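The material for today's practical consists of a large collection of protein records. Read left to right, the backbone structure tokens trace the chain's path through space. An example says more than a description, so a record of this kind follows:
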Amino acid sequence: MKKIVVFILLLSSFNVNAQKADVRVDIFDLKEDVKKLQSENQRLSNDLSISSTKYENRILDLGAKIEDLKFELNVLKRIVEQYRNSVSDNSNSTSSPKTSTTEENVVEKTVTKPKPQSSSQCSATTQKGTRCSRSSRSNGLCWQHGG
């Protein structure tokens, strides 16, 4: 009877040791998983920070473009008002009203054209706000933008 009890205790101690080894392996695996997750978390945090900064800069750029467009709109409103005044002044006088070339002259004097660049790419800006991708002619503009 004593031999059976000792044998059972001996078997249970081997079983407990095996379970301890399994638990140690599980703990090691879990620690490795934690390290991997922490590394991935750090990478994602860095990516988020970079993306956030990129979008903040884009928002600032778009805000500046909006301000530029507001300024240009006010300039164009003044040009239109000047043109209307000159047309109404001319209609009141005996001379014939000025042609549309007067409006073009006023626009050319007020709004500056893009400067030609040394590259072969058109220097004009598209409606999207990006640079035109066409090849330029001698004045720095493509066929569509007045080259």
User: Anything to note?
Assistant: Confidence is low (pLDDT under 50) at residues 94-98. The chain has two domains: 2-110, 113-147. Residues 113-147 form one domain.
